[in-house]
């Protein structure tokens, strides 16, 4: 394959993945047919299969593509952290706050992420098999490794705190906030993406993280429960 053909193929795959991401987020794995995807992309089904072998592989590729962006962000804040930073409660809190902010910003940029996962969880099956083990657990493990180091250093106040549940609770709050939207006093759903609401949500997540881990509150934050 010459350079021009390779570039054209890469462009086609990127277009397929971009549109499939949106459609899987809207309809779920079982609700999207390859024929409907081909019509949305502007290619025939045979061409879709030429670039990506099956619907199942396409679904996995969509999640892998989004997970890679998350992996880069999480790695930047959880890897190559010194023991001094781990032992300093303020330094650890600042690092975790920066990671929280980066993940919120990524979810703003890629609103399909929470919708894709919520659709998958609602379908409650194993299609494709072991997707979570491939794309989710490595991300959890990077964050968990950092928190376990802090727990061993006694920077996290309690050795009995359930780090798995704290991380799971964070993901549920992050995805639920953007996929479900908050309610106003009258019970009407409001836009969660305005700058002031995003800033307030970040402050809430900072407070959640600090208080669940027994870290000092951020003196610059003004979240009150």
Protein architecture, described:
The chain is an all-alpha fold and 225 residues long. The protein contains 11 helices and no strands. The mean pLDDT is 90. Helices cover 73% and strands 0% of the residues. The termini are far apart. It has helices spanning 3-31, 34-41, 45-51, 55-78, 83-87, 89-109, 112-123, 131-135, 137-152, 163-180, 195-213.
Give the gist of this structure:
The protein is mainly alpha-helical and 225 residues long. The protein has 11 helices and no strands.
Low-confidence spans: pLDDT under 50, at least 5 residues? Answer: none
Helical element count? 11
Topology pattern, helix = H, strand = E: HHHHHHHHHHH
* DSSP strand count: 0
Mean pLDDT: 90
Strand residues, percent: under 5%
Structural class computed from helices and strand pairing = mainly alpha
Over the alpha carbons, how many angstroms does the gyration radius reach? 20 Å
Distance between the termini: 60 Å
Please give the oligomerization state of what you see: single chain
Question: Helicity, in percent?
Answer: over 70%
**Main sheet record:** none
Overall 3D form: globular
What are the defining features of this structure?
11 helices; 0% strand; 225 residues; mainly alpha
How is the topology of this model organized?
Layout: H1 3-31, H2 34-41, H3 45-51, H4 55-78, H5 83-87, H6 89-109, H7 112-123, H8 131-135, H9 137-152, H10 163-180, H11 195-213
């Amino acid at each position: 394959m010459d350079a021009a053909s390779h570039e054209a193929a890469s462009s086609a795959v990127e277009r397929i993945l971009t549109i499939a991401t949106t459609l899987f987020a809207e309809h779920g794995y079982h609700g999207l047919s390859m024929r409907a995807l081909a019509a949305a992309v502007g290619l025939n089904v045979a061409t879709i299969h030429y670039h990506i072998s099956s619907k199942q592989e396409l679904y996995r590729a969509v999640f892998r593509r989004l997970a890679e962006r998350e992996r880069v962000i999480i790695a930047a804040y959880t890897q190559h952290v010194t023991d001094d930073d781990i032992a300093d409660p303020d330094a650890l809190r600042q690092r975790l706050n920066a990671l929280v902010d980066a993940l919120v910003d990524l979810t703003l940029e890629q609103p399909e992420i929470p919708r894709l996962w919520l659709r998958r969880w609602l379908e409650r099956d194993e299609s494709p098999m072991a997707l979570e083990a491939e794309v989710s657990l490595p991300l959890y493990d990077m964050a968990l490794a950092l928190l376990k180091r802090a727990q061993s250093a006694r920077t996290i106040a309690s050795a009995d705190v359930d780090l798995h549940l704290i991380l799971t609770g964070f993901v549920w709050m992050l995805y639920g906030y953007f996929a479900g939207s908050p309610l106003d006093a009258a019970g009407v759903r409001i836009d969660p993406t305005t700058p002031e609401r995003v800033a307030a949500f970040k402050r809430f997540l900072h407070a959640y993280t600090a208080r669940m881990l027994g870290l000092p509150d951020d003196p610059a934050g003004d979240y009150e429960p």
